[in-house]
Structure formats: C-alpha cells, structure tokens
Amino acid sequence: MSYFELMGFGPKGWGWPMLMAAGMTVAVASCGFLAGSVIGSLIAWAKLSRSIVARVFGDGYTTVLRGIPDLLVIYLFYFGGSALLSGIGQLFGGSGGFIGVPAFAVGALAIGVISAAYQAEVFRGAYTALARGELEAARSVGMHTMLMFRRIVAPQVLRYAIPGLGNVWQLALKESALISVTGLVELLRQSQIGSGSTYKPFYFYLTAALLYLVITTVSTWGFQRAEDYSMRGLRRA
Amino acid sequence: MDLAFMAETFVKLLEGVPLTLKLAFSSVALGAVFAMLLALMRMSGVGPLDWCARAYVFVFRGTPLLVQVFLIYYGLGQFRPTLQELGVWWFFREPYWCALTALTLNTAAYASEIIRGGLQAVPHGQVEAARACGMSRATLFRRIVFPIAVRQALPGYGNEVVLMVKATSLASIITMMEVTGIAHKLISQTFRAVEIFICAGAIYLILNFLVTRAIMALEWWLSPHLRGAPEPRARLEPAHV
Q: What is the tens place of the pLDDT at every residue in A216-237?
C-alpha cells in the first residue's frame, strides 16, 4: 500500500482517524493552556505580591515546575490521580481495585500546571513593562484596585504578554504529545495504534510530524495576527 | 510520608543519574557542533544553504521531540532490510543511539538560533576594527567574532542545556532506564506516585541547579571586562620602630 493510499480517506485509509486525533491534540492542548492561564495569573499575582510567603510560594512553583521533566508531572497526575480515586472508591465500599482517571482531564490538568509556571513568568514580565505613571494616574483619579485591574492593568498586560504566550502555547502543544503515555488517543497515540496494525510506523509518525507542523504554523500565524491587532493603537518607533 | 521508603527510592533513582547525564552531555556537545554549522549556513548568504538550515530549524522546532524519537526508533524499523544492507542497522536498533540522535538533532535546531542571535549581536565596530588591522576572515572569526558571540549566547544556551537535561526523560519511553525510566518502573510496581515523584523531581532539580551554576561560573569567567578592576591590595608596611 502506498503512502497516499494509507493516509487517504478511502475505506482502508487512516486519513480521518489521524485528523480526528489532531483535533484531540488541539483540544487537550487548548484546555491545558487555558487552565494554565488561570493558574499562571494567580502565580504571577503571588510573585508580585507584597507578602513574602506568597512570593516564596510563587518563586518555588515556577522554579520547581520549570526544573523537572514534564513526563514526571504527567506520571504524578496519572498514577497519583488513580491512587487517589481508588482510595476514595475503597472508602465507599468498592472492591479496592484500580480505578483509572479520565485521560483527557489528567492530560489537560498536567499541561495546565506545567504551562502555568511559564505563563506566570510571561505575565509577570508584562506587568513590570507597564508604565508606572499610568498606575499612579489611575490611583489618583480614585480607581479602586479591581477597577484599575480591569481597565488599566489587564488590557495592557495582555497586550505585552501575547508574544510570550505564543511561545508557551507552542510548548503546550508539544507537551500534549507526552499525554499519549496515559492512553489518550491524540495524534501520537493514534500513530502508535496505526503503525501497530499496519506495520508502517515511518508513514504514521511522518504524518503526525506533518500535522504538528501544520498546527504550529497556523498558530504562529494566529498569534502574529493577535499581536498586530493588539498593537494597532500603539505608536511604533 | 514514609521516609524510609523515600530514602530507598532515592538511592534506586540515583542509579539512573549517570545515564541521564551521559545522554544530556553527549547530545549537548554534539548538538553544539551541529548548531554552529547550521548558524553559519544561515548566515552564509548562499541561498540554498540558508534555505536548508531554515527548513531544518522549522521542522525540528515545530514538532514534538517525542515524535522525532519515535520516528527514528520505531519509524526507521520500517526500512530494516535496506538499513541492514547499508550496514547501519546495529545503530538504529539500539534505543540509546536513537535517543541520542533525536536529542542531538533537536537541540541543534534550537541552539542554532541561539548561536545565530549571539553572532548577529557582535558589534559592527569590532568587526570593522579587526578588518582595519588586516585580520583575515579566519582570524577575525577566531579572535573577535566567536569569543564575543559565545559570551552573548551563553545565558540562552544555559536554558537550552536545562531543557536538554529535562528532555532526556523521553528516552525512558523507548526503554532506557534513566532517572524517569526507573521512576516509572517503581511507580507501576508500588503505586506510590507522590513519594517517587518527589525523589525524582529532587534529583532533576539538583542536576539543573548545578547546570545553571556551572553556566553562571562560565559566564563570569568569560566576562572579565564587566567585573571592574580588582581592588588594589593595601600595602601594609611595618611601622618604623
């Protein structure tokens, strides 16, 4: 069977499963990235706070999660989550057998926790790029913290953060390939399944690589568009 | 928390450290040579060389490392008869060589961009001054451009080395028993994910701490001009008695 027949959309072709799996990759990476934005902004807040406890916690979080392999974090969530669920199951009179955790949730959470560490640094950097005078001006017209955050801080931090967030998104996308170890049928896992049943591993991994390239190219373009849009009101030197 | 169990786990995991370090350092060293070549290709001004380097960097930075590992380790198995004929099958049969190849090719792509940034950041005046002194291109590169570029690229390169130490964990998926591989084996035997995670995480944090310290020391050693003049030593003379 030729490459194009194998990867086509015919009755024996693997085109649709591979495309569906690519969609799953995008879905799990996006959910993880969004979770990471929420956790990441909280961590950035902790790192910028005046409380020393919060600062130490924030610094510890970013140092640890950027210093250990992503695969370990995924194992922790996958096996740790299963152990926790099995324990709860036993508590409610279950047989005490192994209860698997939903792979999608674990994957998205693991990506979220890891990418939060990177996003926290991006948000912190963007916050320090804000002009101090604008914050002072906002305070001097009597804005309280929440209003100032909504009207002055958040829009500008987001604008400065877009290029950095683009990089973190690419990382999240590539991390999602590691989620295949939990059995979630995303692009890499689907390629493993396909090569297992056709003995054509090279074709499948090559297709996976091409699809990843398409996703990264499209998202690079998307982030560039977003950056241009966010900078439209800015005078450039 | 069972401290005795954790101590035992820690010792077991330490057995994986030599392999982790071997993979990390060999791939970084080989990758640096390859990256230098790619950076020079990008800056050569020769169209085809430039495009090849660009395409290489695009492909290797745009796909996950795990896909590259699988493509080399499992994917090339599809062409086993051909590879056997060529006499290179012994190489692609071994997970160690496949992991090392994938890591090297991957880090070369990222590092070539770091090196290119360093090379481009060499002040033009320095190059002009060297030319005015009559240096040949080779001497200019060896004495002026390369040392300045290395100094500028070093902080970025430090990050890349840390990323490579972390990336060696992927070798565990193709059966290599480095730190993560041993951790995975222990977790699936005991189901005590948290304790084992803490031990393995601590090992990686220590390794990466040492790597960043070493890079910082190297940076300090390479930039004596930023350190300021050493304090003149106070001359103590005995009082006349």
A: 999 999 999 999 998 888 776 5
